[in-house]
From TrEMBL:
It is an enzyme of class 5 (isomerase). GO terms for molecular function: hydroxypyruvate isomerase activity. Belongs to the hyi family. It catalyses: 3-hydroxypyruvate = 2-hydroxy-3-oxopropanoate. It comes from Sarcophilus harrisii. This is Putative hydroxypyruvate isomerase.
Length: 286
């Protein structure tokens, strides 16, 4: 079994370095990471980030499409009726960054149920819009040899209005779209909150899964913080099932990021990976 490959989520980790992604990349490299992910890198130029990636030797493995008008409460546009043009403009920006940064995957954010609307009343129209946008996105991404991801975000705790909120819903939409370069993003935090049954769900949806993210439930802290999930078991399960993608560390550190990485150092050591050169054996891109 190959050990898992971990990516530092720079939108959540190393905030003590300030807001500049270049500084967070440097901190992630010093901590032993060989890969990183970031939600929205668009506050810095792609050229600046490409230079930082080259300097640190890190690989960027995931970025998101732009969120839309955050001042109006938007968080993604993929399924939002009337916002198709804005979604497609944002997609072009995401693809441009992915191309220059060598990033292989783009999270195609679904977005929220519009303000004042009932989910049940708009669900059919939103799914229709999402399917159309995903088909368009798949074609655009294919021209660049990129993979698109869709991620269910829990609507019980994190975002009550997020349209895509369960793996079953996401898988159904992916099967309807039927494009080989669109995959499912498994965030264990969200999946546990919405339905639990992680062992069976990981086994059932593994053929669709292109990326994994981790955080403890319910406080979204480090994997070894108090909570519901047994991460040593879940990591071993992913290994046994032959998962070869990245595992994004999208959690809220309880203090200094480095001091909270004991769980990851313990994982690396248990797999025979030397601390300080932590993923040298496990991080060869597939």
């Amino acid at each position: 079994m190959a050990p898992l490959r971990f990516a530092a989520n720079l939108s959540w980790l190393f905030s003590e370095q300030g807001s500049a992604l270049s500084a967070r990349l440097e901190a992630a490299a010093r901590a032993g990471f060989r890969a990183a992910e970031v939600a929205w890198p668009y506050g810095e130029t792609a050229a600046q980030l490409a230079a930082a990636l080259k300097t640190t030797g890190l690989r960027l493995v995931l970025l998101n499409t732009p969120p839309g008008a955050t001042d109006l409460g938007e968080l993604g546009l993929g399924a939002v009726p009337g916002r198709q043009d804005a979604f497609r403009e944002g997609l072009e920006l995401a693809v441009a960054y992915a191309r220059e940064l060598g990033c292989p995957q783009v999270h195609l954010m679904a977005g929220r149920v519009p303000q004042g609307a009932e989910r049940s009343a708009v669900a059919r129209d939103m799914e229709t819009v999402f399917v159309e946008n995903l088909r368009h996105a798949a074609d655009v991404l294919a021209r660049e040899n990129l993979v698109g991801l869709v991620e269910p975000i829990n609507s019980r705790l994190t975002d009550p209005r997020y349209f895509l909120d369960t793996p079953e819903q996401a898988a159904s939409i992916l099967r309807r779209v039927d494009r080989p370069n669109l995959r499912l993003q498994l965030d264990m935090f969200h999946w546990q909150i919405m339905g639990g049954n992680l062992t069976a769900n990981i086994r059932a949806f593994l053929p669709l899964i292109g990326h994994v993210q981790v955080a403890q439930v319910p406080d979204r802290g480090e994997p070894d913080s108090p909570g519901e999930l047994n991460f040593p078991y879940l990591f071993q399960l992913l290994e046994e099932l032959g998962y070869t993608g990245y595992v994004g560390c999208e959690y809220r550190p309880r203090g200094d990021t480095n001091e909270g990485l004991g769980w990851l150092r313990a994982y690396w050591e248990s797999r025979g990976l030397a601390p300080g050169n932590a993923e040298s054996q496990a991080d060869v891109p597939t």
